[in-house]
Amino acid sequence: MRFRRRPAALLAAVVATAAAATGLGVVGAGSAAAATIPVGQGSYSDTRPPGAAGPEDNTGAPVKPKVTANAAGKPVPTNDWWSSLAFKRYPGNPYSENLYGHPLTYRAVSGGLEVGYPTSHAIVGEGRQYEFPHKRDLTIGLAGLNSPDTKADSWSDWTVTPYWSDGTRTLRTTIGHGMPYVYAQGTGGAAQISTAGTPSVFADHGNVLGVTIGGRHYALFAPTGSDWTVSGTDIRANLGSKDYFSLAVLPSTDALATFRKYAFSFVTGSRVTWDYDQAAGRVKATYTLTTTAKEGSQTGTLQALYRHQWLHTSDALTGWTYASPRGTMKLREGASFTTSQKVAGVLPGLPRTSAVDKARLTGYLNEVVNAADPFQGATDTYWTGKQLGKLAQLVPIADQIGETGVRDRLLGLIKGRLQEWFTVGGASEFSYDRDWKTLIGYPASYGSDKELNDHHFHYSYYVMAAAIVAQYDRAWAADSAWGGMVKTLVRDAANPSRTDTMFPFLRGFDVYAGHSWAAGHAGFAAGNNQESSSESINLSAGLVLWGSATGDTSLRDLGVYLLTTEAEAIAQYWFDADQAVYPGDFGHDVVGMVWGSGGAYSTWWTANPEEIHGINVLPVTGGSLHLARNKDAIRRSIAEMERNNGGPAVEWRDIHWEFQALADPAKAKAVWDAQGGNYAPEAGETRAHTYHWIATLDALGAPDPSVTADSPTAAVFTKNGTRTYAAHNHSGSAVTVTFSDGGKLTVPARSTATGTGTADPGDPGDPPATGDTFHLRSGGTLSTTAAATPTSDTIASAGGANHDGTPHRPLVYEVRNVNGAHQSGGTTGFRLKVDAGTAVGLGQQARVSYDLTGDGTFDRVETYRYFATDPVVGWEEYDASRAGLKSASGSLGDLRGGTVRVEVWSAIGNAPSQLQVGSGSVLTIPFG
Asked: Low complexity bias located where (predicted)?
């Protein structure tokens, strides 16, 4: 079945677009004489083909980037969280749509910037979508400001500065992901804060004012010597000779002094750097804010980390948190932080095993290569890409079973179609738009031209296919041949350069959010969105393979960073792997789409559960192995799909079989065997690839991402306690790949090798944890050492519902790579310090889970009876032995590189409570 991605009529619950805006001037891409730009043996045009369209508003009028003179001519990062500032999609709104920075939300209007902090969610669209919608708490502006429009004045990796001017007054505000502050600079009028309701003042220190609006706490900061005055919903301060002021959303009123400390340390930029430590099998990323002191000498700041970040940082965090659609954000005091993650390997294809029937596989390969049209009539960028990807996945398979004739015919098909697209003058080509600094493929599809949607999706297939060609024909991949055009596509979709004047830095990838965005204009009330996160991963995996095949370590390492980062975001936000992100009343285990405001159990084209659950799996490639880190999430997804589908998948059955094989290969193989190959493959799949995938994993076992390697093109599989090591070597000489458990594998030149090796548990990049006592620490970790001073984490309210036995928005603490021998007869113990304050009727509950081998499956899960706290301020002790087990599943055994997890949540009650962390709350496990 062919599916559509963006039909004209969108799902009403998902789209929720804002009112429309004014059109702008004519695009200049077609105004000059056409020129063909040669790139190696290929080329692109600087003019669109006759009759083709470029970026336009929703009435069909062409649009240019809406930026100030300061930003004129600079590549605009479309497909970002704030893109509606620059891409005015709707006539009638020359400002912006809703912008989701997290924890704050924004919307540009004539009088300045609306600011909100949504702390509660809504379930909409017949239960299919959860959202934390923008709702104005206040507007930051200048007295009398009435700007006819808003423009983007400057931007950096995750911050942006909108600009307003009405001829008399000018205003700039700097906003960004993770920023609790809004920094304002203005002239021509007094600083003005207009509130949505009458504010309650909780602190007044002249130039520093603390106000509560709708239950949310804000601090307002004017220059020293100024004084805020409050009149109803109007708050003003004369700036005198100064031109700056700021505000911040506070996690609590007692945070005012800390926020005051950094109020005049204005953020001027944001930047990520990454470092792939190949020997350790880890990638580190450092996120830094640059600042300037408007008063005094303080240049530090405060920033809130998303879940996918604080799970992987060892940097100190405060005890303060914020709510967000991505779960709890944790506040750090400091201008930078660093994350460190294990790298998930990418393979060109799964390795050869004796379990695959060569005759059967050859028959399936011939079905494809002998088809009347192996491209199935594809003409546009997306569907051509799908077919290129389909054929590319068969090349390594044909090669490993000795079908070199089939392999070479496949390579010829791929090269031929790529070269058609990479050459101006035929039925298909790429054209460069000088105004928007983007390369658009024509024929286009799904708004890749008019809305600049999905370039990373479409082009991912071209890069992946080119990487497979480069594996077998490096001369074809040379810059002087066709590699230059491949790199030009990469520059459009995932440019690693900030100084390239032709393309923006990482167009689609939001480095702070940890994932890509699909819409070029972000013109929705729910913010930007991304549906097929797996197609975004396809680009990252393609970069790893292309860089490895061509010797371009810079692009290889870019792919490693992008894939590793987005893999964690996908686990947390698309699959809710830890069951700690989605609201308890959402009722779904996955979302098909992530929005700025939340997530939706839907797709752009259908409500079919098979496609909702499958769109974040396809295409299944050697870049999909990261999904196996969360095998329970895979099982939950398949179970929900089958419940909602009324049975197993029918239309996308092969995608779900392959997905299941990443967690339970034997089950997937049994379903395949029962089907006997008698089905219609998904449009980007083949029987050959699906059979090879399932049979290989059934033989080797599911991927074991707990073990890393000193190569980005290596992976480990585990079956019945036996590990199989696999690696591909793109180089011209043999290499020895070393794995984190001590296993070693010699891989001949330009080959894939496998072996069981001899493993010595231990990860040089993540030293094994030993001992039986762990302290719950801020940041979601379990540590064998206690902090010098205790802090507290907030346990979310049960919301008046009964969650006895089922985690609801739990606090999660985890330690990985734990080694220990199980002490027969020993039991789990914990002492958790909890405090309900004066709230009545609360009960906290804990669950302890053991993943004995670190393969993503919890072998033993223990849920304890909840502890009923008293309504008296002060710490109480929730003790495992006194509470007793409520339920338990599985059994314990020795820990070998295992994972131990503690979850704490509110089982009952209608108020939050506190858990002491750092020191005071302790877990003991029955291991020596």
From this structure: 752-773
